[in-house]
Amino acid sequence: MCSWRSVAGAVLLAGPWVAAGAGAVGPAVTAAGFPGIGRGVTAAELKAWDIDVRPDFKGLPAGSGSVAQGQVVWESKCAACHGVFGESGEVFNPLVGGTTADDVTTGHVKRLNDRAYPGRTTLMKVSTISTLWDYIRRAMPWTAPKSLSVDEVYAATAYLLNLGGVLPDDFVLSDRTMAQAQARLPNRNGMTTAHDLWPGAEFGGSGKPDVQGSPCMTNCAPERRVASLLPDFARNAHGNLAEQNRLVGAQHGVDTAGPAGAASAPAAAPAVAPDAAVLTLLQANNCTACHATQGRLVGPGFDEVRRRYASRPDAAAYLRAKIRSGGSGTWGGVTMPPQTLSDADAGTITAWLVGGGAK
Amino acid sequence: MKDESPVRGRLRKAPENFLDPDGVRRVAAEARAGRRDFMRGAFAAALAGAAAPAVAAAAPDGDPNILTLPAHSTGLGKAVASAGYGVPSQYESHVQRRPSPGLTQTRQASVSFAPLQSLFGIVTPSGLHFERHHQGWWDIDPTQHRLMVNGSDERMLKRQMVFTLDELMRLPSVSRFHFIECGANTGMEWGNVAVPTCQYSHGMLSCSEFTGVPLRTVLEMCGADFKRGRFVLAEGADGSSMTRTIPMSLIDSGEVLLAYGQNGEMLRPEQGYPLRLVVPGVQGVSWVKYLRRIELGDQPYNTKDETVHYIDLMPGGQHRQYTSIQEVKSVVTTPSGGQMLLDKGYYNITGLAWSGRGKVRQVDVSVDGGRNWRRARLEAPVLSKCLTRFNIDWAWNGEPALVQSRATDDTGQIQASYAALRAVRGSRSIYHNNAIQTWMVQASGEVANVQLA
């Protein structure tokens, strides 16, 4: 912590900055040699922004939350995206699963060696509980980061670890019990820094690259075969590649709308989407955080909404009101909060919706 | 290469939807009569994509693009400053950054890939720079943005300080060209071929001239204890408040920049306007955007993106943590997957090479799947931790070919094959795939992404 007085004092002592050492990697600098630039941080400013928590728990604020309290936080603020049991699957990667009581003992998640196990959950990977706590506090919930209280962060962290079988039902997580929870993390011993991919000596490293290619120039390898290529059915999976290459050039894009080997038709420049303004509105108002153009995300796809209300004469008015009032139960249990966008913007979106913009 | 005398490309027959000779004559007549609107309509489809040589085959008197003067040769063009900020030609609308279908579940925590197949030289146009956002992007008012520099304890800095953009931009600046590559670039290809083009396989890669202040300068202004403070935390101002532990060796060397400039203008919002960290040679996730805070500390931070993501699963079940350097790598961008060679004959194979450890020393190119290699030309400039453009002559004889490139950097590290890489790192590490890329040119001229064994 410093004050204006100390900054000014240091500047006076250092004197004017002299541009010595031109040609060095960066401009040569004498400490505090830039009078008039920058000021001291106030205690309140530091408190507002310095929220990181390290593995040694430096930065961890006092507070606590039980598994039971965590369940309440979870079901109201986390479950919409992460699933009631942390299983998620559809929208975000699963947080929970793949760990065992044995892993809690060893600190190594055994299933990381099981190639048949689908994906890796957060609890299979994370090695320090500070990471979970810090991230939930700074970045969750996804659409309202930093809105949880310190106690809610403790509670949500406790519940998440309880879902994973790491903490018992009666556990109370606090600044005093974080170390106990850390000692039970299933993958706490699962990290290594014995590699050459960190620039510097801080982590020990390995001293030399682990993989080195061959310098051979002639008659190098035996005849090799093509072992992997895209199947025919995936030919157009990334869209028509003719429209993803310039109109002129040494080679053009393949027309993947047709079968392989067919003559390439000249690619036409794509038209600008007529509903670009609506898409901008949808993004600006975070509609697209929960709704996709096609198919379910957190909420129904725009195409599903359009289909359901296609025959309803007052569809536009109904949906316009629905956007602004929010609701739940129509499409499942996940609540859509009331949206604060203007009535005019809601009208633009619903006109697009019922007008068939979302096919 | 046996064929020493490249043959010229043949003229292709006119596509069916092009104008027939009668049509050409009619268009010419209408044009002579001054009816240019008619002419534009008639040519619209043809001009959109047909190769110019095709017309010579179709029209007996020659190419109507030559014989019939177009509107732009016979009329008055647009005024200066018709657009206060110019945009690319309407005919360049295919050159776009794109997400890979199905890769991510939301568009706020997602990726878009730079169209490497359509880029020249080494600089990525700012509007085509790849995107990686963890919680959506913002356009932040620079007059309200602040950078705080603090210590993990009171003794780490003599002065904990706050800076405005005005103040940071008063400090002595440097401008340097560097590549930025996501640690997961080419990550979808670890196990097998998964995507069709170099945009999706290698497009989480861009290169810009960045302008800013060395972080070291600002830490020195704060009276940093560089003996005790060996780890720096960088933190963003966006919703995810991205945090990463930054290697002190690159701060010591003056390489890490507090950057506000990109290719001569301010950073684009998608790239962290108004302030981002530039960490040359290190994976993109460390180049924290919307940078609001720097903390000097005596221990690493184990942030989410160094303890849950951006960790590399090795055979045996351990994850490598703090893997940061983007190692020596290259890719041929022309010809590359999803493209169609128009004909046999001469091609200039070109591509990009780079290394997070320094400069590219050498690039070799093979057209027979790695049996024989020729050394490619390196185009100037060749800069440290920057994309380098290479090229080499090739006369395609119409037979299937397997095109590869292999880079060596100035530390002597040589880009390895998939077999060599997987032998050490398995195929489930997601991150840091710098294997040699193979494109298969088929007899039809179509180029496919393949992996060899």
What this model shows, in words?
The complex is a heterodimer of chains A (359) and B (453). Chain A is mainly alpha-helical and 359 residues long. Among the domains of chain A are: 4-49, no CATH class; 64-182, Orthogonal Bundle (Cytochrome Bc1 Complex, Chain D, domain 2), CATH 1.10.760; 276-354, Cytochrome c-like domain (Cytochrome Bc1 Complex, Chain D, domain 2), CATH 1.10.760. Chain A is built from 13 helices and six strands. Chain A has a two-stranded antiparallel sheet with strand order 2-3. In chain A, helix 3 crosses helix 8, helix 7 crosses helix 8 and helix 12 (315-325) packs across helix 13 (343-354). With 453 residues, chain B is α+β, with helices and mostly antiparallel strands. Chain B has helices at residues 21-32, 36-49, 52-58, 64-67, 71-74, 165-170, 198-202, 215-221, 248-252, 304-307, 418-425; strands at residues 110-112, 131-133, 146-151, 161-164, 174-181, 205-214, 231-236, 243-247, 257-262, 265-266, 276-278, 291-297, 312-313, 319-320, 329-334, 339-341, 345-354, 360-366, 374-375, 377-378, 388-396, 401-409, 438-441, 447-452. Chain B has a five-stranded mixed beta sheet. The model of chain B is unreliable at 1-21 and 34-56 (pLDDT under 50). Chains A and B meet through helix 1, strand 1, helix 2, helix 7 and strand 4 of A and helix 2, strand 4, helix 8, strand 7 and helix 9 of B.
Report the helical percentage of chain B: 10-25%
Structural class of chain B: alpha+beta
In the sheet with the most strands of chain B, the strands line up as 4-3-12-7-8
Total E-strand runs of chain B: 24
- Radius of gyration of chain B equals 26 Å
Evaluate the radius of gyration of chain A.
28 Å
- Could you state the oligomeric state of the chains shown? heterodimer
Q: What is the straight-line distance between the termini of chain A?
A: 58 Å
**Which fold name is given in CATH as the topology of the largest domain in chain B?**
Sulfite Oxidase, Chain A, domain 2
Largest interface: A-B, 126 and 144 residues
| Average predicted local confidence, pLDDT of chain A | 83
> How many helices of chain B does DSSP assign?
11
- What would CATH call the architecture of the domain at 64-182 in chain A? Orthogonal Bundle
Q: What percentage of residues of chain A falls in helices of 4 or more residues?
A: 25-40%
Question: What ranges of chain A have pLDDT less than 50 throughout 5 or more consecutive residues?
Answer: 1-31, 263-274
